[in-house]
Amino acid sequence: MTGVVILHGFTANLESVRELFGPLGRFDLKIASPLLRGHGASSPNELRGVTWTEWLEDAERALETLTGIDGKAVVIGHSMGALLAMQLAARRPELVDSLVLATPPVRLTSLLGPGRPLNFLAPLISHFVDRWNMDTKFADPGNAIMPKQYDWSPTKTILSMFDLLQETLRIAGSVHVPALILHCRNESIVLPQSAEILLRSLGTPPEKKSIVWFEKTDHQIFCDCERKAAVDAAVRFVADRLNHKPLNP
To answer: What global pTM score does this model have?
Structure first.
């Protein structure tokens, strides 16, 4: 295996996944973590006009650069990054060894999300509401890393993320690589049933897919109060795929 690709979530940036870098750096692996288009700028206006296919292009380019001609990578994705990770596994199975899917947003708490009762209103709302507030909550703010990220998003860009969600569920059965799902029972963005839906939907053999549950953390699983346990779970998975221990434990 060549390395690990780490994909951040919607309106986030590399700060939201940075806790993974050090522990994974103990392996003799390359690490790639692209800043997805429109993210990490001084204003969320940079997201205007950006679509999910462009985020996928960014992720696929990072995967291709890291793996080279004949390498493979573990792809770790947080939130929207988990959806992109599944897209890569379905589209480029020759490059993807396995997946860590952290809080995949299959069913959102928002009633406007795909699969939710008011989803049919989302396109209509986008004609009247130009931007949508994006509140970041933590289960234990006093024991959390507070990543700077956008506090709103253009509404039409959210709709593109919804399109990614629906398209990813459609192709989930085409994902056959080993997969670990990290999910929260009490978060404010994604419903816990997302993990069970995804576990059933993935084409991965039952013995090669599993869920690790977290009881306290909110959506920012690599930044909130249970971040060490979440990082440890991801690192153990990578170690199992490598079949050896970190170089510098």
So the answer is: 0.95
